[in-house]
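Here is one chain, start to finish.
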Amino acid sequence: MEDLVPEPRNFENADFLFATAPVVAELKEIETEFDQTPAVREGFLGLVRRVMDEDSSWRPLLLGGSGRYPDWFSREFVRLFRPALSRVLKKANRQIRATKDYFRITAPTGMLIFVNDGFTGLEPHFVRALASDLLVNSYSSIDCFLYITLNRYVEVTGSDIPRLLWMPSYSDRAPDSLVQFVDDLGRKWYDFLETKIGPFTIPREEVPQANGGSGTILSRAIVLPGEKR
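Its structure:
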């Protein structure tokens, strides 16, 4: 992209332009443990105080209590991460929109590549669900939210094998060509990884996902390469 955008820069450009697709992609590598930030820590303590207000006998496991939280707790806990994720989406949306405007791209093919390289406080499906909820009515230049793990392996339900994730979700604006592009890109990505770290001893899996998460963001596919052993 640097060779395509003139200097000095007069707009915030995205990282990648796949001109033949055409797809404009912004890469965000997330290394921050958002659950350790003052805002989230204070928010969590506030939720615990709410639990204790509702049930004065409640105690965490470490203090000999049941440690069971009420049904609303996990929903409200996930919401604590909303401002941090919103900031990531907002900046990426701005960069993608400005780049598409510069190259006169009108196709709904903007992609945010969200590389989780240190954010472990929230499970991947919660991150995707939260992003999907945010993308329903905002950040309309992002047509694909692609969640990737690179240096961190993830436990997947129904499997005892640590996995790397390639987990795209799409807006209802996204054309089938974008879905095909992202799937092909994922296969090439893992081919590239194997040239660097050796072949995965357990075959990759491509698992179709049911539509869900929100009214407009649809999860189409997830690619799960097996752990190298």
